[in-house]
Amino acid sequence: MQGVLTGFAVIGVVIAVGYLIGVRGSLGEHGRDVLTKLAFNVASPALLFTTLARADLSVIFSSGLLVTMLSTAAVAGVFVVVGVVRGWGVGRTTIGALCSSYVNSGNLGIPISVYVLGNASLVAPVMLFQLVVVSPLALTVLDLSGAGEKGPLWLRLLTPLRNPIALGSLAGVAVAGAGVHVPGPVMNPLTLIGNMAVPAVLIGFGISLRGSSLPGRGVERWPVLLSVALKSLGQPVIAWVLAVAVFGMRGAGLLDVVVTSALPAAQNLYTYASRYRVGEGLARDSILLSTVLSVPVLVVVAALLG
């Protein structure tokens, strides 16, 4: 359980630093917005490019990834159906669907993969799937829904080619697929810039907690509770059923897919919500609650399947 505790301890400390910065007002009135824009437009694209440019794309062809894809689609689909019926709006429903299915494969997934699963590369397929497929698709929906920049339809249809997150991901995949070696003088500055992404996201998230109400209350109560239930319980259960009943997985392979599915919602979803000014409270509360709940869930999963 050292991996679980280590991952959560690191995240908790950095978020707490962000909260203290918010309380003290050290970054001024617009500090959170600056951090969000920095993470979205500069640091995250650099991080995604450097991560994917060095990735072994062959790892995506596995039964474990199919389980992840199907469980992601299932829980996100449930939230979308409920969002449509309840009239929560395209942007808000998109953020909620992400919070229901998009796992924290980076700053939590990697240490947990090392200490619980014994291999950091096991989280790579999930990370690639989310970076290459889920993020560009969701951000395109947000842009086309009107949450992003306005403009002619033909220009909005080119959103994936203009979105910095999508561009960073697609460029990294292109470099990895072509087998191109990026020289150090180019890769090293990008790596340094990319290293700002996770701290900026976590600190910005911590600042947002200042003065906020208890999670799961107010107008976002039901979307938050639904997304947290789907993320913390629905996704790992669906992944377990699919892995056992459909793919016949057992042992370490089964543990891998269920653990990765049980990871909480990723902090960068709050960056997306803040960037598009939609569902910010939903993203903040869902991330916080799913992160807290994932501790006992991961402990139970590891105890039953480990």
TrEMBL record:
Keyword Cell cycle recorded: no
Annotated membrane topology: Multi-pass membrane protein
TM helices/strands, residue ranges: 6-22, 34-53, 59-85, 122-144, 190-209, 237-266, 286-305
GO biological process: transmembrane transport
Subcellular localization(s) per the UniProt record: Membrane
Database matches in Pfam families: Mem_trans
Keywords: Cell membrane, Membrane, Transmembrane, Transmembrane helix, Transport
Gene Ontology cellular-component terms listed: membrane
Protein's UniProt name: AEC family transporter
